[in-house]
Structures are given as structure tokens and as C-alpha cells.
Amino acid sequence: MRQHISFYVGDTLHHLSDLPPELTLLDWLRDQQSRTGTKEGCNEGDCGACTVLVGRLEQGALVWRAVNACIHMVWMLDGAQLLTVEDLRGPDGQLHPVQQAMVDEHGSQCGFCTPGFVMSMVALSAQRVDLAELEGTLDGERIINEALAGNLCRCTGYAPIVRAMKKAAAYCARHGEPISARTPELTARLHALRDGKTVELRSPEGRVTLPASVDALASAYAQDPAAVLVAGGTDVGLWVTKRLRRLPHVIAVRAAQDLHQIQTRPDGALWIGAGVTYTEAMPHLVAHLPAAADTLRRIGSTQVRNAATVCGNIGNASPIGDGPPVFMAAGARLHLRCGPERRVVALEDFFLDYGKQDIRPGEFIEGVLVPPLAPRSVCGVYKVSKRFDQDISAVLGAFVLVMAEDGAIQQARLAYGGMAGIPCRATRAEAALLGQHRTQAALHAAQAAMKEDFTPLSDMRASAWYRATVAANLLARLFEAGSVTNPPGAPTLENWQEVAHG
Amino acid sequence: MVDPQKTGTQQAQAQLRSGAASMHGPAQVAGGASSSLRHESAHLHVAGEARYVDDVPLPPNAVHVALGLSGRAHARILGMDLGAVEAYPGVLCVLRARDIAHHNQISPVGAGDEPLLAEDHVFFCGQPLFAVVAQTRHAARHAAVLAKVDYEDLPAVLNIEQARAQGSALVCRSLEMTRGDAPRALGSAPRRLAGQLAIGGQEHFYLEGQAALAWPGEDGEMRVCSSTQHPTETQHMVAHVLGCPNNLVTVEVRRMGGGFGGKETQANIVACLAALAAARTGRPAKLRLDRDDDMMVTGKRHDFVIDYDVGFDEQGHVLGVDMELAARCGWSADLSGPVTDRALFHADNAYYYPDVRLRSMPLRTNTQSNTAFRGFGGPQGAAAAERIMEEIAFATGLDPLDVRLRNVYGTTERNMTPYHMTVEDSISAEVMTQLAQDCDYRHRRAQIRAFNRTSPHIRRGIALTPVKFGISFTATHFNQAGALVHVYTDGSVQVNHGGTEMGQGLHTKMVQIAMREFGLARERVRITATTTGKVPNTSATAASSGADLNGMAVLAAVRTIKDRLVAFAATRWQVAPEQVRFTADGVVVGEELVPFATLVNAAYMARISLSSTGFYKTPKISWDAATGRGRPFYYFAYGAACAEVAVDLLTGENRMERVDILHDAGLSLNPDIDIGQIEGGFVQGAGWLTMEELFWDTSGRLRTHAPSTYKIPACSDRPRIFNVKLMDNVPNREDTIFRSKAVGEPPFVHGLAVLHAISDALASMNDYRTCPGLNAPATPEQILRVAERLRQQSGADHAQVHT
Description:
The structure holds two protein chains of two kinds.
Chain A: E1 5-9, E2 12-16, H1 25-32, E3 51-58, E4 61-68, E5 81-83, H2 97-104, H3 114-127, H4 138-148, H5 159-175, H6 178-181, H7 183-193, E6 199-203, E7 206-210, H8 214-223, E8 228-230, H9 236-241, E9 249-252, E10 262-264, E11 270-273, H10 278-288, H11 293-296, H12 302-307, H13 310-315, H14 323-329, E12 333-338, E13 341-346, H15 347-350, E14 351-353, E15 356-357, E16 363-370, E17 377-384, E18 395-403, E19 409-417, E20 424-425, H16 427-433, H17 440-453, H18 464-479, H19 496-501
Parallel strand pairs in A: 1-5, 7-9, 8-9
Antiparallel strand pairs in A: 1-2, 3-4, 3-5, 6-7, 10-11, 11-16, 12-13, 12-16, 14-15, 17-18, 18-19, 19-20
Helix pairs in contact in A: 2-5, 16-17, 17-18
Chain B: H1 4-18, H2 42-45, E1 63-69, E2 75-81, H3 83-87, E3 91-96, E4 121-122, E5 128-134, H4 137-144, E6 148-153, H5 160-165, E7 176-179, H6 182-188, E8 191-199, E9 211-216, E10 222-226, H7 231-242, E11 249-253, H8 267-281, E12 285-288, H9 291-297, E13 304-312, E14 318-330, H10 336-345, E15 355-364, H11 378-396, H12 400-407, H13 428-438, H14 441-454, E16 458-471, E17 480-487, E18 493-497, H15 506-518, E19 525-527, E20 530-531, H16 546-573, E21 580-583, E22 586-589, E23 592-594, H17 596-605, E24 611-617, E25 622-624, E26 629-631, E27 635-648, E28 654-663, H18 671-689, E29 721-726, H19 752-763, H20 780-794
Helix pairs in contact in B: 1-16, 7-8, 10-11, 11-12, 15-16
């Protein structure tokens, strides 16, 4: 048992023991460390002005992740290397190539979002050494858009920032990226911080338990079921910053190293442990559910996916979370644990009602198991929101049809987000499809049946009319020519130009 | 001694007439005015070293302020129990209306309808009720939510429809502009149609929220670091609420993290409360609003409902226009008068209306008090003009571009605006024609129509729209500016002026003017924070006028100092004044090249003043609101944009595929910075018209009060292909600073091209027979609704859309 956390900020090693559970990294940096380069724009993880880089060892290798400091708790940094905008200058004071390119390309106007952009851009240039080679390709554009989706700028219209990104990438391709150059040194010192111990922090405001293993987590949570489990904190962070909630006892999910497993089992099912972030899961998920790739990349932003876990997205049971409908359509099963006891529930059975799940005090999600797609499956996953990137869905439809050899629909799983108080399946529409061929008549029957499935709400994201209309129309996308073999599916704004020009 | 005011301006004008020949010819220094130079703070921005209000180091005894807000849209306050607030650990005191000993009133136009803290009534949900002062920001925020307020609800008027239905009061007088006889022209026109355009509001979403830091000094002095676009007004308001003369208050702003009009008057709320807290406690006090509070408290762009009636002929010529422009102004007047006025000033956009009548209707509602926002009502007025052009195009079957070209202002005829100002500088037709050629508009339009015939769900659209934007404050007296320039004995220069830097590059341009005039490198000219202590009685940095006004004032100050140096050098070196020239290599005096620092130091030794103020007032302008006549604008800035979009008819999702913009910045002071203004202004305008939607629930609570619910454009929302160019070699016809044109607001209007391109895509559903009547913001839902209506009208079954 350790009673402090240790992490580096720049080249300074910090040991902290009496941390309030709710102390955000942003407040700590600005108020206690005088690192005011990191800005507060929204205090809810949506604008990216507070973006910082967290370096951690993943499978022994140093990996940089851009995160929103405003909803990242300081205790999350145990064993990490933090870099803020103040750490980017070279040894003789020269700007990082990303910073220099931003100056040269007029990438800043008011400058307030700029440090956050710079950090996201440095993260990208440190991770994608091939970015310069992709310039001018759709992939190259998509990668930049994805990396910057979590950074808002109100002045520039983004064009000069993207130009700066490309210029910096070209420079780094020729001369190397300075942060990456320090990898061996930083890796070694992070290795030295690892001791595999459970950590317990106490302060007048409360305590934080960082269990080193899932067993330790199970016992800590069984002992104090009133504790709040926190994984990436992208949801709980807002409880703190916006609802001003107190967290007297926090148990950290991601501290347990054995919850970081992600693997394909011999039967083809994909296991995603409770500590696995969306970013870590992404390549596995894309391989496992190719039709979901475009939607998964639009969950939150890069910063959010770097912190948020797949299982946390399920566990918080939001009716508008994007993960649950996707996993529900895929037939995922949730593995729950309470103390030593384990049980498994189908994902659709986990969500009982708005704010109510099939979970007992002291019970937590250990992982989710996503079975392989059956042969002859037709899949479509469609996210619809006011803004393309980093927006909460008005409607999300995730569909899996399993076809018989004669082309009839043998099994239908039509899962939706945004249509009810919980993510749920359109059971009547599914029933209308069973045994049918993929004809317009079958589509219309399913669309008619769907009216009985849902009574959606009207709110600031969309009206009930829009949600109902789009939910039905998304099914039409699934029925379009081309989606018999998937992907590519029906033309959407994401792919139509490729389709049209290809 | 020369008169600094007169001499500077006169010589600026003389130089403009005579070009480089005079002793004030450009010094050809790299990065000087009229060439590109990076933003003066860029190296600080990227390193996190640029300091904003919240970054100023605080002494340990500083206190922090948080606000308690009304939870009701319109109510009488029966009681306010602040016991739990006051008892919260760390709380020092709570300020409410009755604690303001002097004036609890911050109406910027003297309307007397804007209490700083609510008194016995609340007029919108989010109105500040009280301010908690605590040792930490954390304590202040946690305490503020503990108040128990007892309300008696009163009927609330939330939007334009309700306000009209209930005959709600106006927040200020209505303006009417007439020229000719609109009813008669409408009655006799071969074709006539009427319609309505609804156009949404917009949250500024400056990345840096409202913030102020107040330092009490000795003997009642108060120094305020404020994120304000209008330091002088903030100074006046702080003095007003403190009940002290203006000379005790100094307001300083080094830079803002974005303003866009949102910090023209709204910054006063925060600055006044910080100053009150500082005065009460005798300690430095900071108020930085949380983003949600910022969006709940402060005003936004006005939403409008515009009813239009237009008469025209078969060739698409407008013959008469009658329009009523109703705006949701919110609970107080604020700047709604001049904003709705400017909507009328731009209800013609770039078009000549032979007979015209325009009326504004500034409606009072129980919502945030809408305020200045880039364009200041102009974009809403221009949107109505473009809807009229679109209506005529669909009615006549003409290409909308042809309708637009047939109606743009001429230069010698058809050149009188609805407010009786003669348009002398119209280049709309040239700009539009050149852009249409450059971006291949006609050919692409034909291709898009062919594509749409065979594409069931993805439809494309294209539109090319102009902008003509009037430059000057319509309140004539605001069109003045001051500057203060110091030359130090080492030859380094400090420039100060009345404008504020919010990202637009104003300070950079001011530095460039001094560089060009003195022949100095960037490192030798420093700009300092704007402060009411150096340049007093300034106007807001607004109306795109920052560089026009302050640039001339800086030039006047610089020229005054140069005149003294020239006179001194001529005497000392025994040459004619004409033989003294400032160059990048130093000052040429006769046959000698004297380093600037040497000359300056010698002048100092000879007891020559090396410091000067500068002053400028815009000539030629006048405006009489009572008669609706005058020349409110010194000149117009022009441009055109062509947007191509793709729309998904199953969901209403849309995307900008390509945008081309050609814009008139005169002889640009800094082409790179101006292109940045155009790119950024366009994307902001496109966001306003597409995804940015303000949503109040039926109780009057704003539900889009954070970036999680209010969506400004993100990186991937920029056009996939984005070409922005400045017009070549188009010097301003008027004597502006180095013949440049203002560039802050006009490009915002280019966003209209996107709305019309989406409309064009939707029109394909009914074979381009019906004007889609697309309102803004064109969210996916709005687009799908219009698609649904057009589908029903056409009777065709283009898509398997389920209803």
C-alpha cells in the first residue's frame, strides 16, 4: 500500500498524498503550479482549451494521449508523465515545430484556444510519423480532423491551423519530432515509478483508492458500496465541475492493470476490460465491427476517447451514449462482479429504465464481451447529430441483420440511442423483418412497426418528429443497394464522395 | 509647436495623394503596414505565455466572486434567503442590489432599464440576483447555489411570436426608412410575392469567458483588468456603480480571448461586480464566469422574423420592397436600437430597391438581453435581401446569380440606398462576375443539377452571394479615436491607442503603421495594453472600425513626432526638410545616413519632445434617425462567396464541399491577417446559419448553455475545399489608413452562401419549381422538415422517407 501518487510534470517529479478527490488537473495546474498556459474554456471537456499530454506506458511502450485537464482528476496521473504547453520548448528555448508552424501560418488569432490546439497537434505529430506522407489524401484529412475534433476555435475557421498541422508534419518527417526523441529517457523513468501497489490517498475532503488489481477493486468496492467508481472521468468530471458534487470516496477503475485487457478469444469474441479506453479499443473494435468504424471515431473527441472507457460508456447508462446501441446490436454481454461473485447479463437486459440498471450495490462491470458477427450478417451503424464531430447524437441506429442462405432475414437486431430513456431495441420492427427478404415492402413494414416501438422526446437536440423520422430513415439506409456486402454501405456524407468518385 | 491633431491627419492625407515622393513615403521596411506580418502575440499564444485576465498572478489576499442567478423568466422576488450562502466556509460577504450604495444601473444607452443586480423583479432566467465574495472561486461557486429564492411567477414573453401576439413593448423606438412609394410600386408591379424569413440568434462563444480583476488602490482608486472591447465604457460603468468620478477608475485590457461583440457591453456586468467586491472588501477581486453562467447571463445575436413583400418584373428586377424586421431583444434595451437600425441599413445588402419601405420592431422579451455580435444586425438584414433574390429567381426561373447581378447597385445610377445615401463605390457586379468565373460557377451548377437527377438521397447545391457592408458607427460621434506614441532615447518605440486586441490583429496593424513610418523593424516597436489611463474617451473596438479609426490616430501621432524630428534634423544637418527621409536602414539626412536611435537621442539632447498623442475623426459622415436620411457610412466593403454543399435527404445532415471567396479589403494593411479574418468570419457565419441553435424551453430557460449543447463549427466543418482571395489593387476611394478597408464584420455575411446552397440542394426535390423557404439555422432537422414539405408538394417519391 502506497499513500501518495507520483508523476512527472515536465522534468519535475511530484509526490502528492493529500489530494482532494475532486481536484481537477486544470485547477491544480493553474492555481497551484502557476502553469496558466493551459486555459479553461468550458470546464466540461468540450472545447479543448485545457488539452495536455499524458504519457504512459502501454504494453511497456510510452504512449502520448491528449486529454482535457478540466475533467481529468489529479489522482489519475499516478505513474504518468504530464506535459503542458510550458514543456514544449527545446533545450535552448526554441519553439516546437508545431508551435513554429502555428506562428508562421497565422494559426492563432485571439490565442486562447491555441495552447490546447498545440497540444493536440503535438500529440498527433508524435504518434503519426506517416502524416506527411498522407497529405492530400482523404485519410490524411480525416486523421487531422479527428485529432482536432475536440478543440474549438472561434476565430480562424480552422483553415490556418490545418495548414500549420501539415507544415509541422512535413518538418517532423524530415527532422524528427522533439518529444519522441526523448522516448527512451522518459520510458525508463516511468518504469522506475511502477511498483504495482494499491494506493490510498486521504485528505480532509475525502479519499481516493487506486486498487492495483481487479480483486483489490472488488474488495474495496464491496467494503464501501457508496464509493464512486471512476474510470476515465469524462462523465464524473462534469458532476464535479458543473453539478458541484462532492466525492467523499473515489475508487479508480483504471488503476487495476488486469482490467486493461483487450483481446479476441478463440471463439472470435472480443473481450474489453473495464479499464480499456475507447482509443485503446478502437483498432480492435474496428476490426471486429467494421460497419461501426465511422461512428466509433465520432464518439466524444480524441481527448474524450483517450480518457473514457468503453465500459464506463455502458455503465453510466445514458440514453444517448453511442457505445451501448452498437454493442447491443452486436449481441454483447456484460460481465458483472460483486466481491468474488460474478454474473453475466445481456446488454439489453442491463438497462432497465431511465437512470436504473440491473446492478447491485458494490457490483461493477468487469468487462464486456462482444461476440463475432454471424456469417451473412448485414450491418449498419449510423450516428446523427447537429454537428458532425463531437456532438451528442439526436439518434443513433445500430443494425445487424443475419441472412439465411436464401436471402431471408433470419435474425434482426435493431438498436437505437436517443429514442427512449434507455438505449434499446426496436422489437416490433425487428419482428416485422423476420423471415422477409430485403425488399422495399419489408422495409416499409418495419418502419411502420417502429412507430409502436418508440415515443421519443423533444429537446434541444431534436424534436420527437425528427427522431422518429430519422430512426425510420436510417433503416432505409441499411436497405439501400450496396449494403448486401458490407462495407461499403449506402452513400452517406462521410463516404459519398469516395463512392461518387470511386 | 505644430497641432498634433491637424498636422498628422492632414499629412496622412497629403501622403496618400502624393504617394512615396514625400518625406512621409513608406520606409519599405519588411512587415510594415500594407504587407503581411505575423500576429504580434503569436509567439506568446503558441507557448501559453500570452496573458489573459485569468492568468494575472494574484496576491494571496485576493477574493473571488460567483453569481447567483434567477431561475425564473419573469417573476416578483418575494424573498431571498441567503443564510446558507453566507454561512458557507470561506464566504466573506454577499452583494445584492441593496448593497450597491450608488447606482445599480448599467444600461449602456442610458435607458435605465438594466439593473446590475435584480431588485424586486427578475426579467429573465439567468439574471444575476446576487454576488458571493469568497476566499476561493471554489467556495464562491459552491455557496452561490445554496440560496433559497421565493418567486411569484409573472407572465413571460419568450419569443418574437409571443411578443407580437401579446403586443409586447418595444425596448426602444422603431426605425422607419422610406424612399419613393413602396405601396404604389408593389401595387403596380407585374409580379408580386410576400413571405417570411425566420433567422436564429447566435452565442458568441468567445473561448475566453467574461472575466475581470479589480484592484482597489489608495484614496478610492480602482484599477480594473477587464476582458472588454470598450474600456472607456467599462470605466464609466464602474465609476457609476461605485459612485465616483471617472478619474478614479482605470480600465486596462492587454488582450481578449475573443470578443465578436460579446464584450462590447456585456463585459460591464463582470467588471462592475468585481469592482464592487473589491471596494467592499478592500482586496483585489476577480470574477470569471463559468461557461454555463456566461451563456445564461449574457446577451447574444438577435434572432429576427422578417416579413417581406416584393414587387418585380419578369426579368427579375426588383421594383418595390416593403419589409418589417422584428427582433427578439431580450429584457433590456442594451444595444438593440442600433442593432435593429443596422438590420435596416443592410436589408438591401448589395441591391438597389427603386421604391422601398423598411421598419424595425425591437421587441422586449423575458430572455437574455441581446447585444452586439459581429455584423450588428447587418447579417440578418442581408439575409432578408438574399431571400428576396431567391424568391424572385424561383418565381422567374432565372439563375439566382443573374437575378442578383441584375439588381446590384450601380455607380452612377440605381445607386441610392433606402436611407438616401448615394453608393459611390459599388464593385458588387465586378466581384461577383470575377468570382463566378474563377470558381466556374455556371459549369458546376449545371453539373450539380445533372448529379441531382440521379442521386436519390445525396443532393448537392450551389449558390453565389454578395456582401456590401457599411463601414462606420452609425452613431456618428463614436467615429473618433486617439493614440499615444512614445519614442525612447534608444530609438525604441511604444505605441498605444484606444482600440482593443481580441484576436483580430489590430495591435499588429498598429505596430506595422509605426514600423512603416519610422522605418523600424518589428522588434523596435512595442504595443502596450490598452488603458483608459493612456488614451481616454475612446470608442468601443467594434463596427469593424478598429484599424480605420485607431490606425489614423496612430499615424497622426507618429507623423507629429516625425515632423519634429525632420525639423530638428534639417536644422542640425543644414538640409532642407525634404531631404530627410525615414528608411529601413536609418534616417537619410541629405547625404548622410543617420541611425534612427542616433537621431532620436540627438533630438532628446536638443530638448525635442519625443512623445505625441494622435487624434482622428472620420470625415463626411452624418445620420439623422428622425428623418431616416444621411450618409452614415464613410464607405462600403464588398465581397462575394460561392458555396457548394451536399445534403443527405434521409437525415438532413449536410456538409460544405467547397467555398470560394473573393473579398475587398482595399489596399490591405496586412493581407495574411485579413485573409484570416475572412476565413474565420465565414466559418462563424456559416455556423450561425447551419448548426448553431439556441433553444429555450417553455419556461424560458436556455437549454443550450454550454458547448455540449450549443455547437459551433468544429475543424471538420470547414469547407473541404476553401479558397479565399483578396481583390487585387482596389484602393479605397476614401482617404482611409493607407487606402485599406475594414475587414472584421463584412466576411461574416459570406455565410449566407451556405444557406442558399443548402436551399438550392433542397429545391432539387421539386425540380427547382418552388422556393424552399429555408429558415436559419438550417439544422439537420430544419432541412429535413423543408425536404418533407417539398416532397409532399412535388408528389414524387424520390426517397423512401417514412412519415
